[in-house]
Amino acid sequence: MSTVLAPRAITRSADHRYTFEGKTYPGVTGILKVIDKSDALMSWAARNTAEAAIALRMPPEGGTQPAGSDGLWKLLESVGQEGTIKALTSRSSWKRDEAAQLGSDVHDLADRFIRGERDLVIPENVAKHVHGYAEWWQASGWTLRTSEAMIVHPVGGYGGTLDLLCRDRDGKTVLADIKTGKGVYSEAVLQLTAYGDAPLIQDQEGRLFNMPAIDRYAILHVTADGVREIEVPIGALEKVAWYACIDLALWKETTKGKRL
Q1: For the chain, how many structural domains are there in total?
Q2: Helix H segments across 141-235?
Q3: What is the extent of the structural domain holding 171?
Q4: Which of 97, 157, 180, 218 could form a disulfide with 176 if both were Cys (CB 3.0 to 4.6 A apart)?
């Protein structure tokens, strides 16, 4: 990265809005909520509800279900039909929260590892993710330029926090994003597009730089089975799609609370 431009110029609020030179901008991930993910999310929520119902009918692991001990029937007797529906359908909410917490823990531990920390206390539920990431990092040949760095695009009107800016084994600058869910969705491409197109980047030490030219974009899909490195081509079409998301998000904000 180039010479430091200014100290601690970008700040981030708890709700991930970014302020630069007195003006506040929405975050990239917030803007991307305008993309319709209902097909995948509805299927996922429906599956979680079905799994919750099945779990109430199943005996404990290694045991047998005694007569009259059906958990689903007991729940119906206890809280009624509406209460049972709420209990079953809420499963997707706490499953989503669990997934978000796992992703947060993996991001934090992975960042600390590549920054040189080795005496990490790793929770059992993310141990395979973190160990797999550590093995991948050591074999990748990548070297860190900065991580968990804030970006801002004053003209484009957005801010964000990228996961990794590195040099690969060939010395090329690679911008990467870590994903820990079961799948990787297409909006991750637009997320990388937004980060790479921002002109300003601020590292964890609070130093502001010009964004360097990005040679490669990648998504690191980190699961309990290891790391899948996904090369992401980003060109003019991805940039058009990203800036269309900004326009749509702004339009949606102006219509909030209005009834037709």
Answers
A1: 1
A2: 187-197
A3: 15-36+124-255
A4: 218
